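COURSE: Structural Biology Practicum
ASSIGNMENT: Worksheet 4, Part C
STUDENT ID: 0417
INSTRUCTIONS: Below are two proteins. For each, the amino acid sequence is given first, followed by its structure token string. Answer the questions at the end about the second protein only.

PROTEIN I
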Amino acid sequence: MSRLGNLGARLYRGEVGYDFIRNRKIWYGVSILITITAIIGVAVGGLRLGIEFEGGAVFTTDTKAKISTAQATDVATEASGHQAIVQELGNGGLRIQITEVGTAKANEIKETLSDELGIPANDINADLVGPSWGEQIANKAWTGLVVFMILVVIYLAIAFEWRMAVAALIALIHDITITVGVYALVGFEVTPGTVIGLLTILGYSLYDTVVVFDSLKEGQKDITKQTRFTYSEIANRSINSTLVRSINTTVVALLPVAGLLFIGGGVLGAGMLNDISLSLFVGLAAGAYSSIFIATPLVADLKEREPQMKALKKRILAKRAAAAAKGESPDEGPEDRRDDGSPDAETAGTVIGRPRSHGRTPGKR
């Protein structure tokens, strides 16, 4: 078995683990800091809306221009009076995008481009884009987002419980805010491709969260009938048992998206690939982070406020104090021992977040 597979098996069995819940305030602080930075980026810099939302003209050529992309940008900007965005196409042609341009001005720009690029005017395609189309897409996206959020909350509240639904909703808002903030900070255009990417990451983010929640749901059965683990400790075991699976699925999903972003968008200059892949890349990473460091710790915080969970924690702490006074392991009580008095192999191997120490190999007598 590979090292990663062996680690995953040990995490699943609870033999090793990291205490995510105990350090939850650190994760909350990091998330709040990143979220505030994203909000400031949107508020100060604003989003760079694409031509589909602003309206304007798009000029494309199938013939390779006689001047460079930088020179074409200067020519188009000077001719239109607005900042032009020029991209080189795979066939050597150019795509020139200029916002806030009407029909008459578009014809003038087309003639200027024909002269400067050394391409006949008939070989330059000019398309006018109205802002109403992008506005319709944005409105439909917002409607879809709201409906999705409502359905997610209802489903999780029924399938799990309302605390998990609230935690998942906060995690989703966290992921979307960070993704939008990255767009504002790096200056990428917001296009319909961006909207598609944002809606897509919601499913990925929710998938990782539900995997951990399902493990937590199984682990909390009859929780008040035992005095071995608190709710937070069971939540921590759930995160650790699904940790390798979450990492594997996230890495596998990120690799092709990274290929689209850095190779397809960066090397080949494919604009639409940039729009979709950046939102997917940031959203997938943020979703994996929030499912481990935000959603589950939030559920633990909410559950630990219940009277039953408070009483359970009090009993467990009292039991551990009594066991420590007798010289036993703090997490080992009478029910942790076999009939002959030896420690139970299933519970002797670990304490949440660190190995137990009994002066012997766990599981052997």
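PROTEIN II
(use this one for the questions)
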Amino acid sequence: MRVRLPRRWLVYLAAAGPGLIAAAAGNDAGGIVTYSSAGAQFIYRTLFLMVLITVAYVVVQEMVARLAVHTGKGLAALIREEFDLRLTAFAITAFAIANVGLMVTEFGGIATSFELFNVSRYISVPIAAVAIWSLVLFGSYRYAERIFLLLTVVFIGYPIAAVLAHPNWHQVAANTLWPHFVASKSFLLLSVALIGTTITPYIQLYEAGAVVDKGVKPAEYRFQRVDAITGAILAAFVAMSIIVATGATIGGSGPLTSATTAAEGLKPVAGAFATTLFGLGLLGASALAAAVVPLSTSYAVAEAIGVERSVSSSFRQAPVFLGIFTFQILVGAAVVLVPGNLITLILNTQVLEGVITPVTLILILILANRRSLLGSAANGTFARWLGGLSIVSVAIVASVYVLLTVLSWFGVG
């Protein structure tokens, strides 16, 4: 006997995807390393901060989905149409800088994963760069994407690891429900990195574009809203599980300095195979993002200036689109080949993301507030206050870090 799903669930299944995929993509190399470092360095003390970040993340993802559904346009197109040329140029530049930083993170993740298997970055990174560039340009990326996504499934093991590691649940609950912040620049730096790796501009660009591509109609928005909010909450749950698992296994050991140490968080699940499992997951997450991130930048820039944008086009047909994609691949790979600690490099790029993120969030809030754009779907009074408070809080944390950094250049602080 066939079971018939109610029509509303069929509609939900059709709309589901962009929010869940966008949120899952956020748990890439930068995310895994940053959350692991939070657990290693401060045990459970960043959990309350992650609750606040999750609230902001849910608010932002919902606004982005609503903008895309009710306008049928991506973020870059909306910014171009609703703001003047100078602000549009500034926003797109911020997007581009943030995504170039992400490219460094992703190639750093690829290099780190191969180094776990004793393969030098000077071999793995050039080969990966050429492979990813070729996969996208020659139309076989969709097949590789499935493999990359399959590899990232290993990170589902973190919630299980968080339980099997037998953490002090009283401390976990206390740190989740009440702030236990540390008054230090290192805690502030990690806080900015957590913001940058969770609410990254790339995720917003991707979600808006994916919703538009799916053609979700305003009448179906409630289903897309569930998708966006569910995706954000699940991503945050995995992130907090990584912090708990790592905090329980290597908490208090200090700043994370190696991928081998980061892999300890999976030891309660994988035992002696933790490093191998971590390496495979990191490779899949990094390779997937290393292809999608530069594409999101290329789409945003091409959309903003109104030129050809398609992976099926040749260089002659879409020189700007494919040129930007190629440039990001080259820069990301080149920076990672410079000698240095890859884990530190990944963390620093997440800090850069955290500093740039408020620019994107402020523009999203302004757009979602405009009744001239969204009509009755614009933010109501509660949404305005909640969105404003969330985004201002993120901006304050980033601004304080920037201020302290500038003061340190002059020997102050």
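ANSWER KEY EXCERPT:
Q1: DSSP finds 20 helices and no strands in the chain.
Q2: The two ends are 72 Å apart (CA to CA).
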